[in-house]
Model the fold of this input.
Amino acid sequence: MPLLQSIYGLLLGSRGGKSARKLKKRKRATAERVSGSSFAPAGDGTISASPKILIADFISDSGTKVTAELTDILSRSETCEVFRAKRTLKLGKNGTLVEQLYSAFEEGHGWLKDENADLLIWGSANDGVAEIRFIPAAPASDSQPGTFGLGNVLTLASPITDGLDAVLVASALAAIGPGYRGARGRLGETLGKSLQDTKQFLLEKPSSLPIEHYATLLTCIGNGFAAHAIIGGNSKRLAHATSAYRVALKQVSAESEPVIWALAQSHLASALRAMGDREKDQERYKEAAAAYKTITESLSRIEQPFDWALAHINHGLVLYRLGAKSGRAVYFQESSKSFEEALSVYTKEIMPGRWAEVTNQYGVVLMALGELVTGNVTLELAVKRFRMSLEVRKRERVPLLWAQTANNLGAACFSLAKRNSEVSLLREASTCFEGATDVYKQSGEMKKAEIIESNRARVERLLSARNG
Done:
């Protein structure tokens, strides 16, 4: 069974090469507002001053009792505007669980767009147990700590007692938070208050929850602290997040609950990586690398190929950071191995967009390594990887992604040309830099354009010196 943590980014990444399958036509319905009168409309009439939560009727929820309970809890928050969708979001009927969940995601994201909402809450209710899932309108990136993907489930017994309603509220606000375009300060303040009421659960398991459900609760709390670190909380919030994930990992093992365990482990690694970024601390990076490596060793390439590959990518990215901080080639070498493993799963034929992204990242690692080792082979491989990535990242289709890789290719060609004196590489570098500059200017990213234009001027000076 796959983790599904980064399924949003993973599957949308595949759209870079081939067109996505056609979405089935959906019947639009009007949601019913159930929140109180605290909602304050935005001054410009376009973006709400309060985030909007849409709640679907839960699957197998007799009399919609669980749905009504969740709606009641969330509508008490003065920060959010809550709506009932008055319809059920169901899993897709065909394919693997990944495909079924993604089908539900596609439909749910359409609901969010129709209702101009920030978060859709959906799930199932069986025998008094609610499995609660979150679909943010603007999901955070894979690498951001605390990301709520389709793999994240908050499992609670209904009726919700023992103060566990605070976890539901904190999870919903955290799922909205990082990508929210409205009043993030107010959202962060409310999230912070909700998180204060969840700290008790890091010390003691609620009697109403079995161990595996407690682990999902702790992971969601960890995500709440990680999200708060981004939208208003202090740096200690990431430490609180790692504490929650570590407690979750004490409840389950890779053998007893592999999906729950690996999800908590992945979130822990992501938070540690973020701490390393903030603190400029190599030890944090080493901890994160060790956590990702544990996932690659515990998952099966055969049974969980995409999650196994994703763990390798994240492992490679952390090792790249370690290499950049330490200047040690060994970290870049190990990073290269991780990207090689990932590309054995993310192939150009199956997921061209994701393949192009990973191939581009691999090229960056090779370019950094090439600057530290003698000989030209590593830089030649970097140039090759960037050229391969551009076979999918076409300028007319994904101009910004094209510009990113074209700029990388230009840099790699320039570095290699300074060693082997090939004028053709300098010309290729100049062309790449020129194109990337144009794209970034057109998109309004003038600072990037200026830096790349400066690099192109350096190439042109070397060309002139070599009578190119």
About this structure: The first helix runs from residue 7 to 13. The CA atoms of residues 316 and 337 lie 8 Å apart. The radius of gyration is 24 Å.
